[in-house]
Amino acid sequence: MIYRSKAPLRIGLAGGGTDVSPFTDLHGGAILNATINLYAYASIVPRHDGKIVIHAADKAKRVEYDSEEHVDVARCRDICLQLGVYNRIVKDFAKKPLAFELTTSIDVAAGSGLGTSSTLVVAIIGAFVEWLKLPLGEYDMARLAYSIEREDLAMSGGRQDQYAATFGGVNFMEFYADEKVVVNPLRIRNGILHNLEYHLPLFYTRTTRESASIIDEQKQNVGQNKQDAIQATLKLKEQSFWMKEALLKGNISEMGEILNHGWNSKKKMARNITNPYIDQLYDTAMEAGASGGKISGAGGGGFMFFYCPAETKHQVIKALASVGADYYRYNFVKEGVLTWTSKE
Fold this sequence. Notes:
Blueprint: E1 2-14, H1 23-27, E2 29-46, E3 51-56, E4 61-66, H2 80-94, E5 100-106, H3 116-132, H4 138-152, H5 160-167, E6 170-175, E7 181-185, H6 190-199, E8 202-204, H7 211-223, H8 227-249, H9 255-266, H10 276-287, E9 292-295, E10 303-307, H11 313-321, E11 326-328, E12 338-342
């Protein structure tokens, strides 16, 4: 048997960064995001030879270990996430070493701002849930993914991505102290979502970034009570409520203004959120007819998207192609992590 899983990536529409401590602990966070039809995948084939084989197919990396209860992640290099999940599954559930081959892949490059790392962790957990028949609900899986990344592996980041990948759909998420998270699924009419897809093209900047350094600076700015950064983050929190109301009422023509407002605030949270190339892309899109946009994720590279009113989408796509940004077709998806068993 092969035990498979896939989890959707997300675009962060509003409030990004408000899910990062210590801001969340002090002020509470609010984020609006939506999952799209780009995925992280995981599959597990049980073995009977006492070996653990990890195959990161999209990185052309394959490693083998002797099966033991805890594999030293210091040896992991590009497969820390895979081993981090394994260690936690054994510790919390299996209570004994497991032998298997785990194959993983992601539809886009790591560091692209679509929540790739957290989504991959959710997908891997999903494959183990399918194999071992673990009794984990959506909140359980998301909280476990968060704990593995942020606590076990000490990777900097926020809290939204694990919940987006697990729940799927368009969600308004609220974050509180003590790691409390409330996911509010938004019932957006299909016509509104189709219209939003049309007017909100997605672009790959052909660059990736290490989000941890940007997030660490955001945390430091809040910890040091730097008011410019704190006020900018508070404005992003307000933006998420504004965006939620616009979507629920179908007023997507307001999207450009909301996104532009958020982008101007986001740039004040940390120095490397933008750079000359990202600024060039933003200015080029606006000159071609977009009314607002943002970078997805922490910033510094990866994917960007813009609201393009009327028929300006076509001019924006052409203009951004001329400065090196690739247009990505996508659709919003309502399902979160999916798991299944294959007899192949």
